[in-house]
Amino acid sequence: MSTTTSSPEGAVDPMTMRRTMGRFATGVAVVTTLALEGKPYGMTVNSLTSVSLTPPMLLVCFAEGARTADAVIESGRFAVSILAARQEPIARRFASRGEEHFAGLPLTFGQHHVPIVPDALSHLECTVASHLVAGDHVVVFGTVQRTCDRDGEPLAFLNGRFGDYTDRGHEPLPWFF
Ligand SMILES: Cc1cc2nc3c(=O)[nH]c(=O)nc-3n(C[C@H](O)[C@H](O)[C@H](O)COP(=O)(O)O)c2cc1C
């Protein structure tokens, strides 16, 4: 099915924006931090983007009011755990609105005193470089201080559903790796 949406003002409504961008397949990650009072926060994200290689920087877009965003900005540090395909339950846990996402989970820490999701495909430990408000989101730019990654199948997200990534078996792009 194809749908075209436009308006004289150029304003696209939120559901149309979400549906249309939902065609962009992404991975799934959990952003975690430790608030100044010592409480862990974390939430599932797919707005993760690599920004710069030198220095190594990434960004995450947080919806206005997301509890983890406030804690990240306040503490000045956070970790990104890129999830493996078998970690869909973790993605669902950290996406449940208003819940205590860490309830019943043993805390595992990276080397920068920030909790991480164990057994994820990658961990990136970051300090907050800056943040800016963009519409109804806050964009947080992080400088990557430490990374750790392993082989494995990634968790994918497309059209509002979790899925698996299929490798077509072609050679890696030479300019990329
Ligand atoms: C696959 C997936 C990706 C998500 N990506 C984002 C994101 O990039 N930014 C965001 O603000 N919320 C995102 N969410 C929604 C948050 O995970 C969810 O609202 C979470 O409960 C917010 O945490 P909080 O309850 O601590 O505010 C995503 C949810 C899912 C399932």
Task: Give your account of this protein's structure.
There is one protein chain. Helix content is 13%, strand content 39%. It is mainly β. The mean pLDDT is 93. It is globular and about 45 Å long. It has a seven-stranded antiparallel beta sheet. It has helices at residues 14-21, 67-75, 88-93; strands spanning 26-27, 29-34, 40-45, 49-52, 57-63, 77-82, 108-109, 115-116, 122-134, 137-149, 155-158, 161-164. The chain binds flavin mononucleotide. Flavin mononucleotide (FMN) binds at residues 28, 43-47, 61-63, 66-68, 91, 95-98, 157.
Rg on CA atoms, Å = 17 Å
- Quote the beta fraction: 35-45%
Spell out the helices and strands N to C.
HEEEEEHEHEEEEEE
Mean pLDDT: 93
**Count of helices?**
3
The total strand number stands at 12
Helix content: 10-25%
Distance from first to last alpha carbon = 36 Å
Bound small molecules, deduplicated = flavin mononucleotide
